[in-house]
Amino acid sequence: MKKIILIFIVMCVLLTLCSCKSNTTNSERSEREEVSSTTVSEQTYDDFNYKVENNGIIITRFLNDSENVIIPSEINNKSVKSMGKDSFYQRTEMKSIFIPDSVVSIEENAFYRCYSLEKMEISKYVQQIGSNPFFRCTALTQITVDPENQNFSEKDGVLFNKDKTTLLVYPEGKADDVYYIPVSVKTIAADAFGYSCNFTLLYIGENVDEFPDHNIIVNNPETTLVVKAGSTAEQYAKEYQIKYNFN
């Protein structure tokens, strides 16, 4: 009888230990999930909403209407790495913005409808730029790129990839009536000419053989493409019913 009682006591002790271990594991799991949730949730610092991903800061929204904006290089001892999609959407009063060297990414439509933004400087550290982040920035006249940047370049204020084979962004506020696409260009990126540009003549060389799958002249019906006869540009103009002449 004593032996049976002893076995019963031992079993009770073992069950209690297992329960404690299970509770501890569940508690730890809950704590990890809470930390993970906090890591990806949106937070606020001064005039910025942001989130933390891969131990870096992504600016998700600017909350003010300042004319001159300075992005911090760090928030809570973490580097600001990215200007997120739509992060400065319709900040219509913003004329200038300082982007620190910590930023390596400018995402699609980051500055969409920033109508007063006049210039943009791309540092040598920027590695990735999404599809025209300056769409409908109608006052933007110039984009400059640090010559040491390994991914991007500019010519006459227009943004290209490093070897100028892809035209990425033509500033919508650039005042020229005529634009000659450099002979090195083979590809015109989607939304490269934004919503409306001021030129009425766009010269496209026969080396350009890759176009977006839509009309690159979104809101300027007066623009005429000047192309080579028999070129891909001529076929493109015909397909999207864009006015064109031969060079």
Task: Tell me what you see in this structure.
This protein is 19% helix and 28% strand. It is of the alpha/beta class and 247 residues long. The strands form 5 sheets. Strands 1, 2, 3, 5, 6, 8 and 10 form a 7-stranded mixed β-sheet that branches. A 4-stranded mixed β-sheet has the order 12-13-14-16, with no helix packed on it. A 4-stranded parallel β-sheet has the order 15-17-18-19, covered by helices on one side. It is elongated, with a radius of gyration of 27 Å.
Task: Provide a concise account of the structure shown.
By secondary structure, the protein is of the alpha/beta class. 19% of the residues lie in helices and 28% in strands. The radius of gyration is 27 Å and the shape is elongated.
